[in-house]
Amino acid sequence: MTELYLITPPRLGPDFADALAAALDAGPVACVQLRLKEAGADEMRRAIDALRPVAQSRGVAFLLNDDPRLAVETGCDGAHLGQDDLAAHGGLARVRRVLDGLSLGITCHDSRHLAMEAAEQGADYVAFGAFYPTGTKEPKARADVEILRWWSELMEVPCVAIGGITPGNAAPLVEAGADFLAVVGAVWQHPDGPAAGVRAFRAELA
Ligand SMILES: Cc1ncc(COP(=O)(O)OP(=O)(O)O)c(N)n1
Ligand SMILES: Cc1ncsc1CCOP(=O)(O)O
Ligand SMILES: [Mg+2]
User: Which of 55, 64, 126, 199 allows an S-S link to 71, with CB 3.0 to 4.6 Å?
Assistant: First the structure.
């Protein structure tokens, strides 16, 4: 089964909590990641305080991008870290300890080695990508669907696919065994709004 993993847009408008609620109510959505690359500490805490209850009250996990300590402090369900973030926070083993029983997701780009290492050290999921061209971020790597097939046949730890995923190109990722599809643009930039964006994935994930 493949589930939707929603990542927030890079900048949040004043009504974003309502937009998030509408998107989640159009679900199922398994997880929300707050990803604000340009926010300062205060803005980040305000966003967490406003959005975390929207997700958690609906039984949707709320993860924070990049900052495991803040995730713990603010009651998030876990954190997602990239390879540079791991280095900045003292390495994977240390981050695992900081998060204790909370969820830890790790960016592994297109690397089987990084994914094995992450799983061995207690990651709760590994993320591969970018699978398709994306305007949301300049990706460090392009990944092939075969890495999802290889991983899902070999390993128990769930895998996330990310990068340019839309309802129109999701099928090969689902077929190859992705446990989650992580999406930004296809939901938040959907012409009929985010709820329609989430609904559009339903048929692909069934
Ligand atoms: C689910 C998921 N996968 C990958 C990423 C990318 O993380 P990272 O490489 O640290 O890049 P930034 O998101 O921090 O720009 C992600 N955030 N979520
Ligand atoms: C954060 C991130 N990491 C690799 S691609 C990407 C952006 C995904 O956004 P979109 O779904 O809009 O392509
Ligand atoms: Mg990061």
Answer: 64
- Please report the pLDDT score of residue 203 as a whole number: 86
For the stretch 101-123, pLDDT in tens is 999 999 999 999 999 999 999 99
State pLDDT tens for residues 61-75.
999 999 999 999 999
How many domains are contained in the chain?
Answer: 1
Q: Is the CB of 117 under 6 A from ligand 1?
A: no
Does the Cβ of 8 fall within 6 Å of ligand 1? no
Max CA-CA distance within the chain? 44
- Nearest ligand 1 atom to alpha carbon 127: 3
Length of the chain equals 206
Measured in Å, residue 143 CA sits from the centre of ligand 1 at: 14
* Residue labelled with tokens 């090969």: 172
Q: Residue type for 4, please?
A: L
Nearest CA to ligand 2 atom 5: 163
Ligand 1 within 6 A of 89 CB?
no
Question: Where in the sequence is the domain holding 14, given as residue range(s)?
Answer: 3-205
Distance CA 92, CA 114 (A): 11
Q: How is residue 165 written in tokens? A: 């995923």
Residue with CA closest to ligand 1 atom 9: 82
pLDDT band at 169 (very low <50, low <70, confident <90, very high): very high
* CATH code of the domain in which 31 resides: 3.20.20.70
